[in-house]
Amino acid sequence: MASPARRAPAKAARSAIPQLSWRAPQPAPIVLVSGPEEVCAERAIAGVRDYLRAEDPTLEVSDIRADDYAAGTLLGVTSPSLFGEPRLVRVSGVEKCSDTFLTEALAYLAAPQDGATVVLRHTGATVRGKKLLDAIRAGEGSGVEIACPAVKRDSDRFDFAAGEFQAARKRIAPTALRALVSAFADDLTELAAACQQLIADVPGDITDQVVERYYGGRVETSAFTVADTAIAGRYGEALIALRHALASGADPVPLVAAVAMKLRTMARVAGNREPAAALASRLGMKDWQVDRARRDLVGWNEESLGRAIQATARADAEVKGGSRDAVFALERMITVIATRAPYGA
């Protein structure tokens, strides 16, 4: 009975401190930046620094590592200087902190230094430092938490990119946003950089043509062009798009992945008559993704969709080493999808 009794307060403590968005961070004596998404964490920490520096340009910034920590460092860098400048202390690697750091950080929570802001970065990769996190979340040290959960789903990446443009008060066409997210589907850091480049470089609204001009050469963009034309039944265009993508250096694996992703979405939506908003919410998608999948399903039936999925699964195995001729595997997959008939029929 003792163990559950100890765990229960920790669970309740998670709501004892303010939870802030990484897009709108604010300083506090203790700022816990938690979660694995490094792009969001970097933005949050930079936002805290900018906030403090705007209040006082004499801000002193110190960086320490919790895993390579010398005793007394935390108290030393947070103590007031001769002229009383505000201090910002950024602590990295809390998820692998040393015993010395853990002991001193817990003691610091009981008596934070006036004028000091301590930012603790914990990726969540381990449970190391959990005692410190629980104490912060219980309200010790007058802390706030900025959660940076992993951005994995397509809808999450879409939200992230849309948020970049909204924060900059920049308009981007929905189809242009989709193309941009597709172009950087595997790397949030690159997606963030691409958004910022467009925001900085393009004076007006961002259109499909702008995204194509900047990032049309990305493999994933070519992959979705191939997928879109094949699923629409435009056989000749799909083969031309495939050959163009391969000639441009596209890797067959993400080409197949792009097709598979669209077919999976179609399969999840097929036969469901729920309103788009309700279905999107239940499936963890966006309204526009449901609407697009329903448009893509025009002309398809259960048999042809199943055949296309099987052909894509076969192509996936073959381009990953199951066949010596990846190009033939791709062409056969495109043929089955675009013609909606068995290969050679």
From TrEMBL:
DNA polymerase III delta subunit-like C-terminal domain ranges (all copies): 220-335
Catalysed transformations (reactions): DNA(n) + a 2'-deoxyribonucleoside 5'-triphosphate = DNA(n+1) + diphosphate
Leading EC class: transferase
Domain of life of the source: Bacteria
Keywords: DNA replication, DNA-directed DNA polymerase, Nucleotidyltransferase, Transferase
EC number(s) on file: 2.7.7.7
Family of this protein: Belongs to the DNA polymerase HolA subunit family.
The protein's name in its UniProt record: DNA-directed DNA polymerase
Organism: Microbacterium ureisolvens
